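Tutorial handout. Part one gives the primary structure; part two gives the three-dimensional structure as tokens.
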Amino acid sequence: MAGLLLLCAAAVLLLLLAPGGAIPPPEDAARMARFVLHNCDWGALATLSAQEGLRGQPFANIFSLSDGPPGPSSGSGVPYLYLTDMEISVQDLEINSNASLTVSLAQTPYCKKHRYDPQNPLCAHIIFCGSIVKVNDSEAGLAKKALFSRHPEMESWPKDHNWFFAKFNITNIWVLDYFGGLKIVTPEEYYSIKP
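Part two.
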């Protein structure tokens, strides 16, 4: 009976639509990771604080991000960010570029529509670990297109803040999208998925 209930829940999950199309099945963790990132416009970035009184402590902050323009097959899988050295978390990253980034379907209409609490595993979230690096000149155009297509106000942010494009260099990926615990996805598996 329990197996039948899980099978029915999985079938229902497959039929439900999220903002960017049908949500991937729970057994396809790499595709789910790409799907969630592409459907999220922001994430929680955790750094190790370099600030007086918090030095070495975890510090999380919200950042706008994009892996490409909206639409079902336009995501690169690379989380791009638009940063300034004036931002407190960026100051942390200047000391230690290691970070984690969490994105969740809770920010989309999907979880509310299905009455999933953000902590419910069916309200999928992805945890990336890695580091933040400035993009090189050859990648800056791609980062700009990805970010400004989703966050058009960024173009008018004060120029004297010395904004720069950066990316989250992914080394580890954990997916929580169903009951039974976290699934590990390698960066190679993640980037091999075609959206």
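Part three, for discussion. DSSP finds six helices and nine strands in the chain. The first strand starts at residue 17 and ends at 18.
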